[in-house]
Amino acid sequence: MKKFKKAAIKMGQIDYILFYVIFFLLAIGVVMVYSASSFYAMYNFNDNMYFLKKQGFSAIVGIIAMLFMMSFDYHKLRKLTVPLIIITIPLLYVVFLFEGTNGAQRWIPLPGFSLQPSEIAKYAVVAFLALSIDKKGEGIKNFKTGILPYIIFSGFFAGSVLLEKNLSIASVIMIVTLIVLFVGGARPRDFATIIPVLFAGGVFFIFSESYRRERLLNFLDPWKDPANNGYQLIQSFLALGAGGVTGLGLGQSRQKTLYMPEPHNDFIFSIIGEELGLIGCLFIILLFVVLVWRGISIAMRAKDTYGTLLATGITGIIAVQALINIAVVTGSMPVTGVPLPLISYGGSSLIINMTALGILLNISRQIERKSST
């Protein structure tokens, strides 16, 4: 494993391809949040810019956080990791002190803002895994003392998030944990034991709650219950189908006019498909592909194992969430509440993702530059 030598750190240039892709996605997100939410906002709040104002403010805060983290040496995060874990754990349970939304308790209401601790938990787990696996070194190849403790650790956070009725983010935490463990040097044969157990656990939790079970069954045939559990997915199909190749035009969506429930949230990609068509959808998918490509490139060329694992985890979270969201909207997997990173409405999600991407950009400033990618 690569070891980092303590010395004066000379910052290089950021990965400008990644930098511009992040801003492209952010700009598209702000515009599409306004387009998707304007009718809903006018109907419910008598202000068609209600969600745009909030998302715009979050975008500004997110940009400031990203620019700060770009200049903040990521190695200093080592000392902040344990305090972050200590803070995150109680936050995950503070949510139960407040009234839930749509049957889920995921948010801590603050003045003009709602904090979603599960968004912090994802990156807190990644930060801890990167720190600990780097210290463990070759010990990661031992199942009982290497991999198993990390599965238990991540499982605790995933379980805490699951109590908030958020199976999707719990799944993201466990999937990214497996990715980081693999990159960290865990033996492939050990995954033959872990993956079936985690899969069985996922199936159990799906069928242990009636609403999750109904979502799975309605995913197979949404038209069986078109007025209830299958409604949102059917509206997504109608939006994507209406958009065709070139789309109806920006702002011209019909599904956002109270047909699609909260169109600016998890199903914003279907509104993008309706207004910008297949071309717009493919462009956004391409941007995410480029983001993941640059993230992998940064991870491969990081100067130390810690940087490699941190970059892998951050990239993994964005990639897995984008993949799940697009799969849900297109009917490729059961409906679940995973926002599209940098695009879906959500202040805490946007700010935390931008902060994490700032860390990734900082890692890019310290990569080995012997060869260009």
UniProtKB/TrEMBL annotation:
The chain crosses the membrane at residues 16-36, 56-73, 80-98, 143-161, 167-184, 191-208, 267-293, 305-330, 342-363. This is Probable peptidoglycan glycosyltransferase FtsW. It catalyses: [GlcNAc-(1->4)-Mur2Ac(oyl-L-Ala-gamma-D-Glu-L-Lys-D-Ala-D-Ala)](n)-di-trans,octa-cis-undecaprenyl diphosphate + beta-D-GlcNAc-(1->4)-Mur2Ac(oyl-L-Ala-gamma-D-Glu-L-Lys-D-Ala-D-Ala)-di-trans,octa-cis-undecaprenyl diphosphate = [GlcNAc-(1->4)-Mur2Ac(oyl-L-Ala-gamma-D-Glu-L-Lys-D-Ala-D-Ala)](n+1)-di-trans,octa-cis-undecaprenyl diphosphate + di-trans,octa-cis-undecaprenyl diphosphate + H(+). GO terms for molecular function: lipid-linked peptidoglycan transporter activity; peptidoglycan glycosyltransferase activity. It is found in: Cell membrane. Peptidoglycan polymerase that is essential for cell division. GO terms for biological process: cell division; cell wall organization; peptidoglycan biosynthetic process; regulation of cell shape. GO terms for cellular component: cell division site; plasma membrane. InterPro entries: FtsW, FtsW/RodA, SpoVE. It is a multi-pass membrane protein. Keywords: Cell cycle, Cell division, Cell membrane, Cell shape, Cell wall biogenesis/degradation, Glycosyltransferase, Membrane, Peptidoglycan synthesis, Transferase, Transmembrane, Transmembrane helix. It holds the Pfam family FTSW_RODA_SPOVE. The keyword Transmembrane helix applies. Belongs to the SEDS family. FtsW subfamily. Its EC number is 2.4.99.28. The lineage of its organism: Bacteria, Bacillati, Bacillota, Clostridia, Eubacteriales. It comes from Clostridium paridis. The keyword Transferase applies. Pathway: Cell wall biogenesis; peptidoglycan biosynthesis.
